[in-house]
Specification:
alpha/beta; 6-stranded mixed beta sheet; 5-stranded mixed beta sheet; 34 strands
Length: 913
């Protein structure tokens, strides 16, 4: 690369108005000072190269005073093709991708504004600490030029004072300031590229500023001290004004009044004020639309412009159109890293084009200074692939002010996993996952790696790198399974041993070494334990879902990894997110054809759109956790995602799924008399009949899955999402036994539980304001909810079986009290009307209790009158099988175990042909 910067040193020293010229290389023409490449800048010399290897190459020259300077560069290389981008001062884009053929040169000019913090008369701008460090070159006494590109080359540069050109001043915050380092950028840095060298841009925007802060730090006074008639003042604030508190502070009060002050000050100095609505944050709702995170502040800008007859550029509206055109799955390309406020080079470039279009639409006189570019429609942005402004190499720098604490002072959310979480082109869910979090509250770091299993993520040292970075208060989301199923001792040598135990196996690797391979559960426990040891919180996730279908049912595999992940989390008291269930349910609602479009490559890896969908469902799982540890860090987009499940599960509640998807499944739904306790394990000595019922069926021929949940009614089992989960798992040939009634009798709008259904089996409804959800709800009859379960089950090809509620231990005239006039009756009526098998457990079990007498029945209950002991649950389970057999044609007869076959057919049942 050849770089020549020509300035006249003698003129510099004497501060004469003649152009300043320098030359690099041999044979400098008369009047030019030759500057060898090894000439480092020094204050004494007043010119030279800034430290660092190139490209980019930075060359600085001290200038005698602040103001506007015209820079003319001749670009090209005598030996080869050159492509040169030129930036000035703090990364302001001046010339973009100037191409020159070998031996050809082009001369271009642009204007650079140089400023000092001192204010004429008395005073100075109150600079932030970073303005004296990483942003110091925005306020120093030199012009710094940056040459960057695939092959940058400059043949000559000339700098001269430009006193008579108008200046466009920017008063703004971090979204418009000259950001000092990658990956951050702003529209104020890109705007310079779109003007001819007839107007200068002086960007006085600064991170963290509000209108009041801009005034209080003497920044407005500084601008006014150098402003002249014919200049412009572009004002874009709001992000930090929104955070100000105090009596009377607000968008339509103090904020709008301060906007009018800026307008008045500009006009008093003969300048033209232009108000710009604050740019949107990246906060999408579920429909892919940008949510307003700026409250009334954009509208206050519009009002102030109308009331003061000032020009307006509605960047808020244009940025909304821009973000939505890109879409939530890809919008991250517009932003810096995991940030949702500050922009990338591409994002700021597109926003600068919005400002340019706003200048044209407002018919501002400075439109005549714009370079020739086609009209820009924010709803049809430039293709990202065509964006070619080179980024500076090297690490990113500080987070902008106004974006909360530094990264190391806020929690980090790490994701570890395989290619379903991290893939090329944002096709793993953990890439768009960051867009659901407030970057000011938490960092999201994707450490997942394609092709890894729980075993290889550990053995390759990837996990140790995460552990080394963990600090107290951090989080780790752990998701494996897709690559754990292979043979441990065959290529690619990544399979873990199946199961949750402590078994291990020594295997010979390709390099001749021996590796001790552990179970999937061993590696998962290691991740959980190491995370906790660092004071961080582990969260276990089940695997994503593959595009593999049986009819309308999607596979909930691979293997048993979802089940094992849940069991490990339960055993280790760690939060668990059922990603498999959430994704499977969404896919099945969409249907195979729509889901197919999300898998362009194979049945495992999604498109970017599919990755964003899966990311949203992980967020849904986060929101569905009881006392979710991550919910506080979600941004507006994350908060807009509906929880999965719709209500947080009771502590330690584990709802199982079919162990063998190839077998038919008998699902049980109901309340605590079917499944008591959080795990159905006899907490407080109480058991529901659904647990011992499992032993009455042959596990090699049918899955029995108890999905009943204590405390629910027929209404809340539906409205809280539990039925949706069961329905989504159903496939043709399955069965469901439903038993409700114990919790349906309360008031519909009971402020403590709000779970009561309307009495009866009709179609009556009642509109209420649900005191729990604070939303309007149409409450139906007990019979309506049963009919809904029956219809949904049949739609899935399953057989519904209605059971009446089991009796309570309440004696009347020497017999157990029946529910013959209420829930027993209504269940029978629904079953008859819908031609569904009916099991009258209320009457059947009551007869058994009557037979054995009060003393023996007392021993079957673990509380006063509702919840049975294990022995009582076993009696009730036998009554369920007895009622099934009494149907005459028992649909489940072929699946009974030997113990189940031994049960005598008896009880009250009806086949309802």
């Amino acid at each position: 690369m050849r770089l020549v910067l020509l300035l006249t040193l003698a003129a510099l020293a004497q501060a004469q108005p003649q152009p300043l010229r320098f030359a690099l290389g041999s044979g400098a023409p008369s009047g030019y000072v030759q500057v060898p490449r090894e000439t480092a800048y020094s204050p004494e010399r007043g010119y030279g190269y800034e430290p660092g290897a190139g490209p980019p190459i930075y060359f600085s020259v001290r200038v005698p005073e602040e103001g506007n300077y015209r820079v003319t560069v001749t670009l090209g290389d005598p030996q080869s093709e050159a492509v040169t981008t030129v930036k000035a001062e703090v990364r302001r884009l001046m010339l973009e991708q100037v191409r020159t053929a070998p031996g050809k040169f082009e001369t271009r000019s642009f204007l650079v504004n140089v400023r000092r913090p001192q204010i004429a008369g008395d005073g100075a701008v109150r600079l932030k600490p970073r303005e004296t460090t990483s942003e110091a070159w925005a306020w120093d006494d030199r012009i710094t030029l940056e040459f960057i590109g695939p092959h940058p080359a400059a043949g000559a540069v000339e700098i001269s004072k430009a006193d008579r050109v108008p200046t466009l001043f920017i008063a703004g915050d971090s979204t418009s300031t000259d950001q000092p380092v990658e990956p951050y950028n702003s529209w104020g840095q890109m705007l310079t590229r779109f003007f001819q060298p007839e107007i200068a841009v002086a960007n006085h925007g600064e991170s963290g500023e509000s209108l009041r802060g801009f005034i209080g730090e003497n920044r407005l006074a500084k601008v006014m001290s150098v402003m002249r008639p014919g200049d412009y003042l572009f004002v874009q604030m709001g992000h930090n004004d929104q955070k100000e508190r105090g009596e009377g502070v607000g968008a339509f009060t103090t904020y709008k009044a301060d906007l009018k002050r800026f307008i008045a000050e500009a006009r008093r100095h003969g300048a033209t004020p232009v108000l710009i609505t604050p740019v949107n944050r990246m906060m999408f709702d579920e429909a892919g639309k940008i949510t307003n995170s700026l409250g009334d502040y954009p509208e206050a800008v519009r009002q102030a412009a109308r009331e003061e007859n000032a020009a307006l550029i509605d960047l808020n509206a244009m940025s909304k159109a821009l973000y939505e055109a890109i879409g939530p799955a890809k919008a991250r390309i517009l932003f810096a890293g995991n940030d949702t406020t500050h922009h990338s080079d591409y994002g700021s470039y597109e926003l600068a084009k919005c400002i340019v279009e706003g200048i044209r639409q407002a018919k501002l006189p400075i439109a005549k200074y714009l370079v020739s570019t086609p009209p820009f429609d924010a709803a049809h942005p430039d293709p990202f692939d065509a964006f070619a402004v080179p980024a500076e190499p090297g690490p990113g720098g500080q987070r902008p002010y106004g974006d909360a604490a530094a990264a190391q002072k806020i929690p980090t959310v790490f994701v570890i996993g395989d290619s379903t979480a991290s893939n090329a082109d944002h096709r793993g869910w953990a890439d768009p996952f960051a867009s659901y979090f407030d970057a000011a509250k938490a960092n999201v770091v994707n450490r997942a790696r394609g092709g890894r299993s729980s075993r290889t993520f550990f053995t390759e040292g990837l996990w140790q790198k995460v552990v080394d970075e963990l600090k107290p208060g951090d989080f780790v989301l752990i998701q494996f399974g897709h690559n754990d199923g292979g043979a441990p001792d065959r290529p690619p040598f990544r399979g873990s041993l199946p199961g949750l135990g402590d078994e291990s196996k020594d295997i010979a690797m390709r390099d001749g070494k021996t590796e001790t391979v552990h179970t999937f559960g061993w590696y998962m426990r290691r991740f959980l334990a190491d995370t906790k040891a660092k004071g961080a919180t582990p969260i276990a996730l089940s695997p994503t879902v593959r595009n593999i279908w049986t009819g309308a049912t999607v596979e909930r595999g691979p293997g048993h990894y979802a089940e094992w992940a849940a069991e490990i989390a339960k055993a280790e008291a760690a939060p668990f997110i059922d990603v498999t269930g959430a994704i499977a349910e969404r896919y099945e609602k969409m249907g195979p054809e729509k889901v197919k479009a999300l898998f362009p490559q194979d049945h495992t890896h999604t498109s970017a759109e599919g990755a964003d969908l899966n990311a949203s469902l992980v967020v849904a799982g986060i929101r569905g956790l009881r006392a979710s540890p991550l919910a506080a860090f979600l941004n507006a987009r994350g908060q807009a995602v509906a929880p999965y499940p719709l209500r947080p599960l009771p502590p330690n509640l584990v709802l199982k799924e079919p162990k063998d998807p190839a077998l038919p499944t008998l699902f049980l739904i109901g309340d605590s008399t079917v499944r008591n306790g959080s795990r159905g394990d006899g907490s407080n000595g109480q058991w529901g009949w659904g647990e011992p019922l499992v032993d009455l069926f042959d596990a090699s021929r049918i899955n029995v899955v108890n999905r009943a949940v204590g405390g629910l009614s027929s209404r809340t089992f539906l409205t809280q999402g539990f039925w949706d989960h069961v329905r989504a798992m159903m496939k043709p040939g399955d069965f469901v036994i439903m038993q409700f009634g114990h919790n349906d009798g309360g008031p519909a709008d009971d402020p403590a539980r709000a779970r009561g259904s309307l009495p009866g089996a009709g179609e009556e409804t009642r509109e209420i304001e649900n005191p729990m959800t604070k939303q309007r709800e149409a409450v139906h009859t007990f019979g309506w909810y049963l009919r809904r379960f029956i219809t949904d089950a049949r739609t899935r090809g399953a057989t519904p079986i209605v059971a009446s509620l089991v009796p309570r231990k309440i004696w009347k005239d020497g017999k157990i009290e029946r529910q013959s006039d209420t829930y027993q009756k209504w269940a029978a009526e629904v079953a008859a009307a819908e031609k569904a098998p009916y099991l009258d457990l209320n009457e059947t079990i009551a007869r058994r209790y009557d037979e054995i007498g009060a003393e023996k029945v007392n021993a079957l209950f673990a509380d006063e009158h509702t919840h049975t002991t294990r022995a009582g649950a076993e009696l009730n389970a036998e009554c369920v099988v007895a009622c099934l057999k009494a149907l005459g044609q028992d649909p489940l007869a072929a699946y009974l175990s030997e113990k189940g076959k031994a049960v005598t057919a008896q009880g009250v049942s009806r086949r309802n042909p």
